[in-house]
Automatic annotation (TrEMBL):
One of its GO terms (cellular component) is cytosol. This is Succinate--CoA ligase [ADP-forming] subunit beta. It comes from Hypericibacter terrae. Its EC number is 6.2.1.5. It comes from the Bacteria. Binds 1 Mg(2+) ion per subunit.
Length: 401
């Protein structure tokens, strides 16, 4: 997806293609008929409800690039649908967006095949500069939009909507003309885009990507693929959407952290980072990298006012076998350094600390905090500055290799 940088601290919730299509259908966006299936038997029942002569079986995972990876298959009979669904369900699909471990396919979507004349690209997302919605469109649908952006940036059109304003017909027409649509197709695109926009606003979406949006040989416009994500912070007013969350798509540690209202992101390195605030998290990861280390995660305990939550955060980081050492870099403002230190010491004792732990505390009650750490009898490496802390943890983890 283009231009979507997660904003600091905000997490986006993604949903499956079939769920996005169900939502969009309610807003009047044309999508092919179809339904989800968890077993080959269900796939058969769905296929029988649809008219042939072409059906499409699509793996439902939170990643794009399924087509190229064998996760989208065209079928010519109900029997074929069943066979393909049987093969797809339970397989691990590896696409350029899943990482090498791939994702297990637990549901497939069976839909009516479309007779495609042209594949276009259409997306709505939040423009971080203005805070308004931006429409992105391209005649080069069906492809990776990142690739189009890299090779032929002139083929991507952006139409920014003023923040807090409705989409007007002329915005939509601008997009339609840029896509080379003519006459009746223009009206269809305007209607479709207005529906998408309404869905985006009413559902507090962060992104809706239709790739491809197709023009069929009968000159219809149909959303053939749909990805939607939502701002986590708005989900409290959309319980029905929150229920669409597929826990299987999340790392178990991420899920556990979420239960405790901790902002945790898993990364590919081996140094666990406990910080408070997204800004300090970014700075901590940067300086670890600058010193030649690689962060394994960032665990943001911002808002955690108790030593119990600090301890929970520490235990979660420690439970990841990829973590070979931990750097705690916390600024005690409202949260006092002695409470942070007590939380760390308690959890470190409990796990029987046997990996390097560097702690840098600053702020309220820092002297008390440092005293708790030094008197704990645990092998905790104290650090003063951010640079000092990063050097120490990188050296300690490298020494242990
Ligand atoms: P992904 O983006 O994960 O690869 P898509 O849903 O975009 O998955 O499907 C990939 C390609 O498969 C599309 O570009 C389109 O050519 C084809 N396709 C998908 N759904 C249908 C359908 N219902 N009818 C015909 N072709 C389809
Ligand atoms: Mg697609």
């Amino acid at each position: 997806m283009l231009d979507v940088t997660p904003s600091k601290g905000n997490r986006a919730m993604n949903i499956h293609e079939y769920q996005a299509k169900q939502l969009l259908r309610r807003y009047g966006v044309p999508v092919p008929r179809g339904d989800v299936a968890h077993t080959p038997q269900e796939a058969e029942a769905v296929a029988e409800e649809l008219d042939g002569p072409v059906w499409v079986v699509k793996a439902q995972i939170h990643a794009g690039g399924r087509g190229k990876a064998g996760g989208v298959k065209i079928c010519r009979s109900v029997k074929e649908v069943v066979a393909i669904a049987d093969r797809m369900l339970g397989m691990r699909l590896v696409t350029h967006q899943t990482g090498p471990e791939g994702k297990e396919v637990k549901r497939v979507y069976i839909e009516q095949g479309s007779d495609i004349a042209r594949e276009l690209y259409l997306a709505l997302l939040i423009d971080r500069r203005t805070g308004g919605i931006m429409v992105i469109a391209s005649t080069e649908g069906g492809m990776d939009i990142e690739e189009v952006a890299a090779r032929t940036p002139e083929k991507i059109v952006r139409v920014a909507l003023p923040p807090a304003a409705d989409m007007q017909g002329f915005h939509a027409r601008k997009v339609a003309f840029a896509l080379g649509l003519k006459e009746r197709e223009v009206h269809k695109l305007v209607r479709l885009l207005l529906s998408l926009h309404r869905a985006f606003v009413e559902l507090d979406a962060g992104m809706i990507e239709i790739n491809p949006l197709v023009v069929t040989s009968a000159n219809k416009l149909v959303a053939l693929d749909a990805k939607m994500s939502f701002d986590d912070n708005a989900l409290f007013r959309h319980r029905d959407i929150e229920e669409l969350r597929d826990d299987d798509e999340y790392d178990p540690l991420e899920r556990e952290a979420q239960r405790h209202d901790l902002n945790y992101v898993k990364l590919a390195g081996d140094i666990g980072c406990m910080v408070n605030g997204a800004g300090l998290a970014m700075a901590t990861m940067d300086i670890i990298k600058l010193n030649g280390g690689r962060p394994a995660n960032f665990m943001d305990i911002a808002g955690a006012a108790t030593k119990e939550r600090v301890a929970t955060a520490f235990r979660l980081i420690y439970s990841d076998p990829e973590v070979k050492g931990i750097l705690v870099n916390v600024f005690g403002g409202m949260m006092r350094c002695n409470a942070i230190a007590a939380g760390i010491v308690g959890a470190a004792r409990e796990v029987g600390l046997d990996r390097p732990l560097v702690v840098r505390l600053e702020g309220t009650n820092v002297e008390l905090g440092r005293e708790i750490l030094s008197k704990s009898g645990l092998n905790i490496i104290p650090a003063t500055t951010l640079a000092d802390a990063a050097q120490k943890i990188v050296a300690a983890v490298e020494g242990g290799r």
